[in-house]
Amino acid sequence: MKLYSLSVLHKGASKANLLKAAYDLSSFSFFQRTSVQEFMTFTSALIVERSSHGSRASVKEQEYLCHVYVRNDSLSAVVIADNEYPSRVCFTLLDKVLDEFSKQVDRIDWPSGSPATINYTTLDGYLAKYQNPREADPMSKVQAELDETKIILHNTMESLLERGEKLDDLVQKSEHLGNTSKAFYKT
């Protein structure tokens, strides 16, 4: 499970404007990183342009999933993750980022802003924190603990059933031994 990109954009009338972005391209080779980053930036802008206001969507591209949230005020965010990353956690991250971004950056700067002019530094922190969804999201952590408990409970039930079968075998053997001893006593 991995997050590759987290971007905040403004959806204009004709095109989307990148305001700030964070990338984790450590899994790509050094020579591919620039082109991969450009591709992720282009894809993020394209998805925002094609999404309607007030919508959330997930778009699959090869082994990646792009999750987008476009608010009614035209502020948008896109996260690019692998297929295994839980989408609920992605949308929680997008909500947090957009809420915090709208509080820290003036609305006047959104249409004309660029990554160089926007002063918002917490995207890299969010990208690093959410690399492990179980650590970042309490619901994922609880779900993982429930899954572990379910496995343990299942194993315990299987061993109890096996013990019950063994007890049934012992009961049958003792009844057979009792019947044999009665037959021996009679003879």
From TrEMBL:
Subcellular location: Endomembrane system
Alphabetical UniProt keywords: Coiled coil, Lipoprotein, Membrane, Methylation, Palmitate, Prenylation, Protein transport, Transport
Pfam annotation, one family: Synaptobrevin
Span of domain V-SNARE coiled-coil homology: 138-187
Start and end residues of each Longin domain: 8-127
Main location: membrane
Membrane topology category: Lipid-anchor
InterPro entries: Longin-like_dom_sf, Longin_dom, V_SNARE_CC
Similarity section: Belongs to the synaptobrevin family.
Entry protein name: YKT6 protein
Organism, as annotated: Polyodon spathula (North American paddlefish)
Lineage of origin: Eukaryota, Metazoa, Chordata, Craniata, Vertebrata
